[in-house]
Amino acid sequence: MTDSTTLLDHTQEARFGDYIALLKPRVMSLVVFTALTGLLVAPVSLHPLEGFAAILFIAIGGGASGALNMWWDSDIDRIMRRTQSRPIPSGRVDRDEALAVGLALSGISVVMLGLAANWVAAGLLAFTIFFYAVVYTMWLKRSTPQNIVIGGAAGAFPPMIGWAAATGGISVESVLMFALIFMWTPPHFWALALFMNDDYTNAKVPMLTVTHGRKATRLHILVYTILLAPLALGIAATSIGGPLYLAVSLVLNAVFLAGALRLWRRDEGLAGADKYAAEKKFFRFSLIYLFMHFVALLAEAALRTAGMGGW
Amino acid sequence: MVMALKAEHDLHKRRFGRNLGLGIVLAGFVALVFGLTVVKVSNGDSMEAFDHTARPGLTEGTGQ
Question: Among A39, A256, B36, B54, which one has the highest count of C-beta atoms within 10 angstroms of its own C-beta?
């Protein structure tokens, strides 16, 4: 083998950024934001460096589970348009490398969170990684149309871990923050599935739109949005809520419910005619819905610090 | 052939970038662990744990 052929074999060699991409930075940013909220609204405050380390290792744990997800799902990521440019399907990173990165970072993040904060938070992080990588990715994603519902639990844990990092325990506040994300996930992803259905069909992922059709999916979105509202509003009555949170949550839930009702009333003819405009709008609003709920919680915490928040 | 190997190839740039990235991450990790240690020692957190012998100092105040 000559030098030139050796070099040619490595033209696809990964850059540092490709390993960062394995950690799903966009998902990580949501993990950082919700975990930070859970940590900041908690009644116990950590030293800033301990708080920073806790959030960093929660984010790395979330990223590690993302790498394990990409390792396992590289076959279907090659098929779906949305995921074809990921590091493994595009040939920049080997599957084995992704597995190694995922396992190593999982171990490091859990141990370091335990040392920086406490072992309750570390245990919750370990469970989250296991839940996302094994229960969701390896088991439910390809076997049941309820994949999004149960898998959503993995994305709902970060604020609970942030809260546990500060307080060392679990309470009604952290459980409600978990419930808010858990119940929000299905309508969010099903709205996406309504206008990205072809991808899931081609990859043989049993999304609700594929197995039960779009009409049933629209009904499911409405039901979950109705169930979500009391949970979101319920946070207002806890020690982390207050009048400001209640007002913000009332407006957000009213708009979200109106959107879900609109989607339920539409049929495929109508949706096809305007290229799924309402579905795309509902999906975009779902991001604002979750973001603003957590911003309102942060605002309540800031007001409490200034002696004005709460009831 | 030796000359060809010395020439800067895109491969070398990628590897340098990767090594630099990893180096920065490791240096950051060492700094963070050092910082955490300073914070924990300053806060007076327990720096001892059970080590297979009775340590009355660790259980003091717990009613044992």
Answer: A39
